[in-house]
């Protein structure tokens, strides 16, 4: 488990590109037949990529979280960004198509992952897990693609027409902290959020996916008056501190998993900034 320590806005102006990428960009989460984890000290969130390409994989625990098993004191939201797969939680099997979401509550002990259609259009399953500490237990719950709360946002005239599917949130699947969903840009739209915003009460993590090999997203981060950018490829994640804007524009259309943890679960609790005021 790689550790990423928390940063403050004062750190950003002095960072070069390599340090920005080293602190906020998460690459190589998905490697065949591997489980890779990154612990960020922003709200003690853990990002995990699980890739059961040719064999099932079992999620173990890590010394860094000091627990007998991974979900002993944690909850998690999982989105499948690859081909069809299954997750077995304490003997109960859940089948996830691409884009489906599974919430796992505190106390789950035996959790394993498998691919079901390795030769399909989307290849083997690729599970993206975002986990945060939890103080109580909510039931493990599966949501199929398109079965969450669907919101149509943006306008093609401003290149940000997008479909947002909320899975884990205050009016959907119940959790202690995690809020999670998937946003898909419509063809011809490139901006995922503009005007940009912060929510100083919650950190956020983005996983960009469905990007062609040569396409990239320019992810904007930092304080609104002191922005920086990160160039992000397919299945790469961004750690976005609560004080940072998080907006991006792609060279082609794409999708992304967004997940938050922190003070509240209100999706619309945002502090917006006009692009004219950004620097």
UniProtKB/TrEMBL annotation:
Its cofactor is Zn(2+). Keywords: Isomerase, Metal-binding, Zinc. GO terms for biological process: D-galacturonate catabolic process; D-glucuronate catabolic process; pectin catabolic process. The keyword Cell division does not apply. GO terms for molecular function: 4-deoxy-L-threo-5-hexosulose-uronate ketol-isomerase activity; zinc ion binding. Binds 1 zinc ion per subunit. Its EC number is 5.3.1.17. InterPro entries: KduI, KduI/IolB_isomerase, KduI_N, RmlC-like_jellyroll, RmlC_Cupin_sf. It catalyses: 5-dehydro-4-deoxy-D-glucuronate = 3-deoxy-D-glycero-2,5-hexodiulosonate. Pathway: Glycan metabolism; pectin degradation; 2-dehydro-3-deoxy-D-gluconate from pectin: step 4/5. Zn(2+) binds at residues 197, 199, 204, 246. Gene3D superfamilies: Jelly Rolls, pectin degrading enzyme 5-keto 4- deoxyuronate isomerase, domain 1. NCBIfam families: PRK00924.1. Belongs to the KduI family. Catalyzes the isomerization of 5-dehydro-4-deoxy-D-glucuronate to 3-deoxy-D-glycero-2,5-hexodiulosonate. This is 4-deoxy-L-threo-5-hexosulose-uronate ketol-isomerase.
């Amino acid at each position: 488990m790689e550790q990423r320590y928390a940063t403050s806005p004062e750190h950003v102006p002095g960072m070069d590109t390599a340090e920005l990428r080293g602190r906020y960009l998460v690459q190589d989460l998905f490697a065949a037949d591997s489980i890779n984890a990154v612990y960020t000290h922003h709200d003690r969130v853990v990002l995990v990529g699980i890739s059961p390409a040719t064999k099932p994989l079992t999620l173990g625990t890590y010394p860094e979280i000091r627990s007998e098993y991974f979900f002993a004191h944690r909850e998690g939201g999982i989105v499948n960004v690859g081909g069809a797969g299954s997750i077995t939680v304490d003997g109960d099997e859940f089948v996830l198509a691409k884009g489906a979401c599974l919430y796992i509550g505190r106390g789950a002990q035996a959790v394993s992952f498998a691919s079901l259609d390795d030769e399909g259009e989307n290849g083997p399953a690729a599970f993206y897990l975002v986990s945060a500490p939890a103080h109580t237990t909510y039931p493990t719950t599966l949501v199929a693609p398109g079965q969450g709360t669907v919101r149509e946002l943006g306008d093609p005239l401003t290149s940000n027409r997008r479909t947002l599917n909320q899975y884990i949130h205050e009016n959907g699947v119940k959790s202690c902290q995690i809020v999670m969903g998937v946003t898909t840009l419509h063809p011809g739209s490139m901006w995922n959020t503009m005007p940009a915003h912060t929510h100083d009460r919650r950190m956020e993590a983005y996983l960009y996916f469905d990007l062609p090999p040569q396409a990239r997203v320019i992810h904007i981060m930092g304080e609104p008056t002191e922005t920086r950018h990160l160039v992000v490829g397919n299945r790469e994640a961004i750690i976005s501190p609560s004080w940072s804007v998080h907006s991006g524009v792609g060279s082609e259309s794409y999708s992304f998993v967004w997940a938050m943890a922190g003070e509240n679960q209100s999706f619309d609790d945002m502090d917006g900034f006009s692009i004219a005021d950004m620097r």
